[in-house]
Each structure stands twice: as structure tokens, then as C-alpha cells.
Amino acid sequence: MAKTDKSAAIASLKEKFSESDATVLTEYRGLSVSALQTLRRSLGADTTYAVAKNTLTRIAAQQAGIEGLDDKLVGPTALTFIKGDVATAAKGLRDFAKDNPLLVVKGGYMDGRVLNADEVKKLADLESREVLLAKLAGGLKANLTKAAQVFSALPAKAARGLGALQEKAAADPSVIGGAGEASDQEPENTPA
């Protein structure tokens, strides 16, 4: 590979590292080209699956400010650059690996930290972003509904309490301090 080609490859990898929300490293040894194409399609439009030389990947990662991937860059390595929903892409990798055991997840990088293979698998067990947001919205709506019910119950309880007091006062005027029933006479206006 010519020096200009290497520089271009490093720049491209660095850009992908910088733009991605997460990166997952896999070993693809033994997978056919058609299997890799199937994997790429299953990961979705926001995810890029690329095979790159380990030395170029190491240099690009360092230039992007990512440290700690060196021990994972051994043997044939493919990089999954994920933009958007990380859990969905991790599920795609996990599901593909179930059907194709030659795909091995080595680890990854997300939110400034290096992930081991088990942590990437845990990401795959998360529900998708949309599902989590829907659950959050449902929880918030339920709490708002409860609050609305409490606030609407207060005036109704007060009205019932005042109605009961009025009935009791009509039966026993001493309940409200002996005021009894209202008179038909108007109060006298006395100048002060």
C-alpha cells in the first residue's frame, strides 16, 4: 500500500472513529464475502462494517484520541462504526454471531471507554432507544395522570365537605356558631 493510500485510510478511519457513537471490533476469520454482505445489510444504514489493517486502525484510533484498543487489534479485525442506536447494532452483531459462530466480538469503544466482549453483549441485551423512550414517556404520563386525579379530587372533596356542613347546619344551627338560617333583612349600614 502506497504512503498516500495509507494516509488516506488513516484519515478515513480517524473520521469514522470521531463521528461514531460506538465502535465494535470483531474477528471475521472464515466468513465468506456473501456472509459479510449479509451482516452489513442486517446492521442498518447508520452502521458501517469495515475491514481494516490493525496498524492503520491503531494509528487512526490514537489520532482520534482513543486509547486502549491495542490488545484487541490482533488477528483479522473488522470494525463496526455505529451512529445512532448502539443497542440495535449490537443486537445485529449478536444475532449474526449466533447463526455464524466464526464472527467473534473482541470488544469495543463507547463514551470514552474501552469495552470488553461481555460489555458489548450486555449492550445487545438492552432494549432499543425507541422502546426505552416509550417506556419513559409512559411512566411520565402515568405520574401526570395520577397528579391530575389528585388535583381534581381536592375541589370535589371540598365541595362534598361543604355540602355536608350545610346540611348539618340546616338541621342544627349551633354547628356553625349559631348563625342559623340567613335572614331576609338587609344589614344596616352604619357610618363609621
UniProtKB/TrEMBL annotation:
Q: Which keywords fit this entry according to its UniProt record?
A: Ribonucleoprotein, Ribosomal protein, RNA-binding, rRNA-binding
Q: Does the keyword Hydrolase apply?
A: no
Name assigned to this protein? Large ribosomal subunit protein uL10
Q: Name one GO biological process term.
A: translation
Q: Record's InterPro entries?
A: Ribosomal_uL10, Ribosomal_uL10-like_sf, Ribosomal_uL10_bac, Ribosomal_uL10_bac_type, Ribosomal_uL10_CS_bac
Instruction: Give the quaternary structure.
Output: Part of the ribosomal stalk of the 50S ribosomal subunit. The N-terminus interacts with L11 and the large rRNA to form the base of the stalk. The C-terminus forms an elongated spine to which L12 dimers bind in a sequential fashion forming a multimeric L10(L12)X complex.
Ranges of compositional bias, category Acidic residues: 183-192
> Which is a Pfam family this sequence falls into?
Ribosomal_L10
Could you tell me which species this protein originates from? Acidipropionibacterium jensenii
